Structures are given as structure tokens and as C-alpha cells.
Amino acid sequence: MTETRPGIRALLGGNRDYRRLLVAGLISQTGDWVVGTGLAFHVYRLTGSTLSTAIMLLASRLPDVVLGSVAGALADRWDRRRLLVATDVLLALGLLPLLAVREPDQVWIVYGVALSTGVLSTVLAPAQKALVPQVVADSQLVRANALHGQTGQVARLLGAMLGGVAVGAGGLAAVVLIDVASFLLSALLQATLRTPGRPAGAATMGGHWIAGLRLATRDTGVRLLVAYMVITGLGEGIFATLAAPFVSGVLGGDGGAYGLFLSVQAVGGIAGGLVVALHPSRAAPRVLLGGATVAFGVMDLALFAYPLAVPALWPALVLIGLAGVPAAAAMAGFTTLAQSVAGDDHRGSVFGILGSAQAATALTGMVLAGMLGGTIGVVPALCLHAAGLIAAGIMALAWDHA
Question: What angle do CA 322, 327, 329 make, to 5 degrees?
């Protein structure tokens, strides 16, 4: 592919297929946040049980741990565009049983839908990320990955707010219908992509899966990415668990302060993605990943340690917003490096393995945070997460692919 104009305008204005892929991802992820937010609220209101909500969330996330590598192999075996379209349609149809939920003893329907949608959703990320290099020039990959990586943050802001409003105004039915519409619209957009078809290779899906596992154990680049994901996944789990105790117990903030803290985090991520997209680094993806991760870790270390001297809320809001820039750069570098270390035949498998590693270690990090928060304290545990980021960044900078 050739670029007719430099910069972000060439990507968004001159690349019809990338633009549609980006919008499709934004729409479907917004729908996910709508149903995730609304369903969690509705299940608790229906059953009065926090355990029911926890089971629903576990059912939706467990497939990422167990089936990520298998889903990645599907993206290598089948035509990725058709796979994305079929998955979106199945996700839309799979939500319809929720319309029958009326009584607490019907909560099993919610669990079944959460599990089935969780299984189907594992296909989306590997296929989308493996598809990006098929529609974007190599010189635009960092910029494209920076924008694509921030659709989740935008969807989080829009979908969480819309989900709360929808479940309050129209109940579960409104939430379900919004998400069904989002998946169908995403499928329609992706059906119009002009991507090269996948050749019918000799390898079976099992062959692609095995080849992906071999890459994860033998290729130094994939091993680096898996190690990076393990370290940072643990940190994500620690942060997700201890963010509320940090704002409440350490900074003395209330629920509104916690909501503002998370909102600023999302806004900072969006702003960071735009900065990287507008001014992508000329550095190699490995250097971008390593340098940005070290910077991200240093800023997080300042964020979690400053209350030891000045226990005020406003510096936390400033620091977590500013951290969005290196966080977005690290994400763009990571995705671009993953796309480059594996050939097109194995990109889906690599992203599937990385997704499984992230999901598994994030869950482990949540358990670890529960133990560390009560033993060494919230601030030291969060500083340990920041130190892990710095170590992961140094590891990426020191990596030699020779």
C-alpha cells in the first residue's frame, strides 16, 4: 500500500478499510461496555447478591484465559474479515436470551450468555490485530496501532455512561438491544472491508495452534512479548484491585473521587493515544515499547509514592492523566512489535497466546493484590507494580533478536 499524504490524514482520510475497521471496533466495544455495566447492575438488583455478579464476571472472563490461543489459531486458519463478521453476528444472536430474564431463578440464563459471549469475544482481538497490517502500510503501523488501542478507552467512557442510563430508563431489554445493534453494525462495516482473502493452506487449525505455541517457546521475540505480558498483566491485576483502596484509604477520597480518578485515567489514555498517533516515534517498535514502559513505570512510581509525603488528591489526578502518554506509546510499540515478530500466517496465534497470558496473569495479580495489600500495605504493593513496569521496559530495551 502507498500513502498519498503524510500523517494521520493519510490514515483516517485516505484509508477507507482501516477507518471502517477502527469504527467497527469502537462501536462493538462501546456495546460491550453498555451491556457489561448494565448487566452487572441488573443482576445485583435482580438477585441482591454480590456473588451472582462475581460469577457472571468470572464466566465472561474465564474464556480469555483458557481459549485465547485457540481463538488466535482461528484467525490464522480462516479469513479474518469473515471471521470477524460471523463472530459479531453470533454475539448479537447470543444476547437475545437475556430478554427472557424476569426472575431471580432465571439468573442461570445470564451465566450462560456471559460464558457464550466470553467464548466468542476471544476471537475478536487476535483477528482484528492480525488484520491491521493487511490494510495499513508498514510506515503507518505505529500510528494505526496507537489509534486502534485507544478505542477501548473511548468505548469505556461512552459505554459505561450509556449502560447506566439505559438500564435505569429501559431495564435489561434496552441494554441488550443496544448491544445487539452495536454488533450488527460492526458486522456490516467489517463485511465491506477490502482485505486479501486467506489462502487455503495445508495446516489445520490444530497445526496453526501448535505452530503458535512453538513460536512462543522458540522465537526470542515472542518469548520477550510473553514475558512482558506476564509482568505487566500481574501489575494490571494489582492496580485493578488496589486502585479503590488507594483513593479511599491512602488519599481519603470518596466514591466521587474514585470515579474521577478512573475517568481521568481513561481520558489520559485517549489523549496519549492521540499524541502518539499525531507524532509517532521513529524509533524501532522494541525501543518504543521499552522506553515508553520505563517512563510509564517511573510516572506510576511517582503516583503511588507521593502520598507518603503529600497525601492530597489532585497530584494523583495530574499524574495518572500524564501517564496516559507513555502508556499509549508502550501499547502501540507492543502491538507493532507483535505484528512484526511473527509472519502473517501466525499473527493471530501470537496475539491469542499473548491475550491468554495477560488474562491469566491479571487474575493472578488480583489474588496477589488481595494478599499483599493486607501484609505489606497498599502503597508498597502498588509501587511493586510500578517497579515491574520499569523492569519490563528495561527487559525490552535489552532484548537482542539476533
Answer: 110
In this prediction, residues 387-394 reach a mean pLDDT of: 96
Contact present, 61 and 359 (Cβ < 8 Å): yes
pLDDT score of 135 = 86
Between the CA atoms of 377, 381, 383 and 387, what dihedral angle is there, to the nearest 10 degrees?
150
The amino acid at 311 = P
Q: 302 or 344: whose pLDDT is higher?
A: 302
SS (H, E, C) 278-293: HCCCCCCHHHHHHHHH
CA dist 320 and 263 (Å) reads: 10
Please tell me the CATH code under which domain 205-398 is placed. 1.20.1250.20
| Whether CATH 1.20.1250.20 fits 8-191 | yes
Residue 309 neighbours by CB distance under 10 Å: 7
Which are the contacts of 311, defined by CB distance < 8 A and separation ≥ 6?
A: 250, 251, 252
- Sign of dihedral through CA atoms 183, 185, 186, 192? positive
Measured between alpha carbons, how far is 156 from 176 in angstroms, rounded to an integer? 17
Q: Give the pLDDT band (50/70/90) at residue 4.
A: very low
36, 163 Cβ separation under 8 angstroms = yes
pLDDT per residue over 89-132, tens digit each?
999 999 999 888 888 888 888 888 888 888 888 888 888 888 88
CA distance 383 to 390: 11
Query: Cβ contacts of residue 400 below 8 Å, gap of 6+?
Result: 220
Segments making up each domain of the chain, as ranges: 8-191, 205-398
User: In CATH terms, are 8-191 and 205-398 the same topology?
Assistant: yes
Measured CA to CA, the distance from residue 226 to residue 356 in angstroms comes to: 10
pLDDT digits (tens, 9 = 90+) for 7-27: 777 777 778 899 999 999 899
- What average pLDDT is seen over the chain? 82
